[in-house]
Fold:
Amino acid sequence: MKIAVLVKQVPDPNAIRYDRRLGDLVPGTPQATNEYDLYAVEAALRLKEQLGTGEVVVASVGPARETLNRCLAMGADRAVAIEGPSLPGDSLVTATVLAAWLRREAPDLIWAGQETSDAGTGNVGPQVAALLDIPLVSNVVGWEYRDGVLTLEREIEDGHQFQQVRPPALLCALSALDEPRLPTLRGIMEARRKPSDRISPADLGVSDDELAPVVSWEGLFVEEESATGVVLQDVDPDQAVEQLIAFLQERRLI
Amino acid sequence: MDFELTPEQIQVRDMVREFAQREVAPHIRDWDAKGEYHPEVFRKMGELGILGLPIPERYGGGGFDYVSLALACEELEAVDTFLRVVISVHVGLNSLTLLQWGTEEQKQRWLVPQARGEKLATFALTEPGAGSDAGNIQTRAVRDGDSYVLNGEKMWISLANTADHFLVFATLDPSQKHRGLAAFMLERGMEGLTTGSIHGKLGIRAGDTGWISMQNVRVPAENMIGEPGEGFKIAMSAIDQGRFTVAAGACGLIRACLEASIKYCHERQAFGQEIGRFQLVQQMIAKMVKGYETSRLLVFRAAELKNRGIRNTRETSLAKWVACDAAFEAANDAVQIHGAYGFSNEYPVERYLRNSRGAVIYEGTREIHQVLQAEYALGYRVDRPLRCPQPPAQAFEEQEARA
Structure:
C-alpha cells in the first residue's frame, strides 16, 4: 500500500515570541513539525509495518527541510518538498497544490494532521479530499485495518463514533493516536540516503491563477488578557473546597 | 570555520532533547528528591542509539561525529546531570577507549554490544586513596598462568551497580608507579567482583554512583586492553574523551540555568517591575551568556580536533575547566536570581547547583586543569604520539579514505 502523509513545518509552539513592533513573530523563531502531523506519520508507518510492505511518502508545501528530514528519520521512505515564491498561500492554495501532487502520486491512503498549530484553520485535509473527490474521515483517534477496510474511531462533540471506509480516503489525525516515535540515530543516518525531491507548483501543472489566494492576512496580534478571579461567597465550606479544587485542577495547578 | 550545524547534527540534538524532555523531565524533581535511580531510562537510550552515538557503524554505533556527541551531552545535562554521566562513562571513558586501544577481537566482544546499547559499561580508575594521583593506585594485578588475579577497591564509580562491563586499572608493579599500570575489561558475574552504592551525595542523586570491590578476581589475560605498563596512557586518553563529554554537558547545565533564570526574571516583580530590569540581575544573566557561549566554542573546537583524530588533550582540558567552572557559577547565580525560591526544590535551580559541583572535582579537578594549562604554556608539558592514536570520526575516516 502506498500511503501519503501531508506535513507542515510551523513555528515551535513552545518557543513563540510575538514582536509588537513588527506585528509578527520574532524573526528567527524556531520551527517544529506540526504536532498532529507527527501522529499522522506514526499511523502511516504502523500501517505499513502491519502490512509488511508498502511505501510511506511525506509531502509538505512551503519550506520544511527539517520536518521532512525528521519524517524520513522516523521511517518514511521518500519526501517531497513543494516550494515556490507564492507558497505557502492560503489553505485552498495549499490544498490545490497538494491535490495536484496527489493526483500524480495516486496513493492508496492519505493521512494528514487535523489542523496546524499556526494558522489552525483545519481546512487543508477536507479541501484536499474534496478536490480529489475521495472520502474524508476527520478527528481520527484510533484505527484498525483488516481485509481492505479501515475501521476508524472519531472523536465527536459528545463521544466517539466508529466509521468504516475502504481506501482511497483521506484521514485527519488527532493526538490521541499512538505516540509518534522518536527518530533513532540509525534512522537519522539512513534518512541521508533516502530520496528527497524538491518540486514547484509549475512542475505539477498548477497555474498562477490557482495560486492566487482567496484569503488575505491583515496581520497578527495578541489578544490582551486581563486576569479574572473567582470569589466564593456564602458557600458551604465543603462545597467551597470542592469548587476550589476543581478551579485549580482546571488550570492544572494541582 | 563553519558555525552552522549540519541537518544531521540538528536532528541528533532535537531527538535527544525530545527524549530527555519526554522521558525524564517530568519525573526528575521527584527522582532527585527521593534519590531514586531509574536504569530503564538507559534501555530507551540504547534503543534510540544514543549509547553508541560516535562509535562507527561497523561496530554497531551511529557513526556520528564529536559535534553531535557534544550536542547530545548538552541536551541530556540540560535536563539532569545523571543522564550525561551515562554518556561520559559508557561512551566516553569506556567505548571510545575500546575503539582506540582494543584489538579487533576485543571490539567485537565488548564494543559492539555496548554501542548497540545491549550492555552498559563503566570505567574504574579512582580508588579510596587515589584520585588525581592516578599513578598511585593500589589495586594489584598479579599474573598467574594465562590470567591475572586482581585485588583492590574502586570508589566513586558511576554506574557501578548497573554496568555489565568494567574497564579497571590495576598496577602490575607498584614500584613502577604510573608505568606499572595495566587496563582490564571485567564483566559482572566474575567471581570475587562485588559492587555497592554510595549514598549521601551532594548532587546527581538520580544517578548510580558506587564502589567496586575485587577479591581474587581471576581475569583472562586476553581481557587486558593495550599492553602491560600502558594502563596510564590508556587511562589518560580515556579521560580526554570523558572530559569532553563533561564539558559539553556543562554547557547544557549553563543553558538550563539561563533559561530558568530568564523565565523567572520575566515573572517575578520587585519594586514595581520585573526583576530582569535590575542591572545587578542583568549582570548575572550576562555572565551566564558569556559562560555558555565561550564554553560551547571551546567544546566545539575540541570536537573538531577529535573529528579529525588530532591530539586534543590541551584543548579538551581547557574546555572542561572553563565549562565546569562556568556551570557552577551559573547555577550559583541562578539560585541567587530566584531568591528564597531558589533555595527550595520548587524550582530546579537548587538541583542544578548541587549537580554542578561534582564536575569541578571529577574528570580532573579545577586545580589539575590549571596546572595542565600552565605547564603547556610554560613548555613543561608536551604530548607525545601514542601507540594507538584516537581514530577520527567515521565521516572523517571516510573522507580520508576517499582522498
In short: Chain B touches chain A at residues 7-8, 10-12, 14-15, 18-19, 22, 47-50, 52-53, 57, 62-64 (CB under 8 Å).
